[in-house]
Amino acid sequence: MENNTAKQRYKGFFITFEGPEGSGKSTQARKLAEFLTAKGREVLLTREPGGTPLAELLRKLVKNFEGEEVMHADTELLLIEAARVQHVQEKILPALQSGKVVICDRFADSTTAYQGGARGIDPDSIAFLNRLAMAQCVPDLTFLLDLPPNIGFARANERKETKGEHDRFEEEQLNFHLRVRNAFLAIAEREPSRMRLINADRDPDTIYQEIRAIADKLVR
Ligand code: TMP
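Above: the input record for the complex with thymidine-5'-phosphate. Below: its predicted structure, written as C-alpha cells.
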C-alpha cells in the first residue's frame, strides 16, 4: 500500500487490525480502543466488511450467501470494495478529518490477502480497486496478528459470529487459509514500517501488552 499524501489531508490517526479468523483481532481492537479512549482520545472502532448499514448488508451477502448460483471471485471483490467505499466515505474519512483515532478490524490488506493471495485475482486489479475505495485513507499503523491456520480454525469454530449459519470463508479448506497467511506475511515484509507482525499464538493479555506499548509510542 503506497504511503501517499493522506496524512496531510486529515488530523486523525488510522489503525487497522489484520489476520486470520480466530486470531483474536476483534478483542485486541476493542481493548486498544478502550485504552486510547481512557487516554483522552476520541476513537471510532469499526470493522470491514461493514461499518455502515449498507456496508453491513453487503457483509452479510459476502459472508453468508448461499444458493445454487456460485458467487464469482470478482463479484466477491466488487461487493467488498463497494462496502469499503460506503464505509470510508460515511465513517472513516469524516472521523479522520475531525481528528479521531480510527481503529478498523480488517481493511484493504484483507482484500490483498483473501481476494488476491487466496482467490487468485491479479494484484493490479486489487491494488486499483483498493486505491479507489480507500480514497487516500492509508493506515498509519497495522497490526498483523499472525497465527497458523489450523489454530485459527479451531478458535474460529468455537466463537462463530453466525453459529450454525453457512460462512463462505470459514468453510474454505486449509490451503486457502495458508495462502491468506502467506499473502499477509508478504505485505508485512514489503511494508515493515506500517505493519507490525504480532505472534497471536500467545495468551491474549501478553498480546495486548505488546500492542498497547506500540500504539502508545506511535499514536499522535
Ligand atoms: P471477520 O471479520 O469475522 O474476520 O469476517 C470477515 C470475513 O470477510 C473474513 O472471513 C475475511 C473476509 N474478508 C475478505 O475476504 N476480504 C476483505 O477485504 C475483508 C475486509 C474481509
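Notes for the reader.
The pocket of thymidine-5'-phosphate is lined by residues 21, 47-49, 63, 80, 105-106, 110-111, 114-115, 161, 169 (CB under 6 Å).
The chain has one domain: 13-218.
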